[in-house]
Design goal:
alpha+beta, six-stranded antiparallel β-sheet, 22% helix
């Protein structure tokens, strides 16, 4: 998934993936931490609205860490957003193109598979691959 110039993406941190519960405290904590939106069961919702979930049903909750337009000036912001998402979700990040596919990235210490699989790429490697199609951008070292 190489991101070209002018691609719009969302950086998401999965908080719950197919788990039962109301998640009221978790959603309130995210709001207090400064996050504004979350994708709850596939629907983008504002965290300041009342979100009621059935505790007997499975839910997927991904907090929106950042929404941005890919261009050369956003390298540092993209890297910081990916690292924030990894901290929130224990090393798991979803990069979703607004009108396209999404990719799940997992931080891993498995160096042997790093060149072959997205699941073990670090934020720096992801950014290098994302910006390879953007002209006049230096790769991160």
């Amino acid at each position: 998934m190489a991101l070209g110039p002018q691609e719009r993406v969302m950086i998401l941190a999965p908080i719950a993936r197919g788990r039962k519960g109301e998640y009221k405290k978790e959603l309130e904590k995210l709001l207090r931490q400064g996050f504004v939106r979350a994708r709850v069961d596939g629907v983008l919702r504002s965290l300041d609205e009342e979100i009621t979930l059935d505790k007997r049903k499975n839910h997927s909750i991904e907090v929106v860490v950042d929404r941005l337009l890919i261009k050369p000036e956003v390298e540092k912001r993209l890297e910081a957003s990916i690292e924030t998402a990894m901290k929130l979700a224990d090393g798991l990040v979803i990069v979703a193109q607004v009108e396209g596919p999404e990719r799940c990235i997992r931080k891993s210490s498995d160096v042997r598979n790093a060149a072959r699989t997205w699941s073990s790429w670090s934020p720096v490697v992801f950014i290098q691959q994302s910006f390879r199609r953007v002209p006049d951008v230096q790769r991160l070292r």
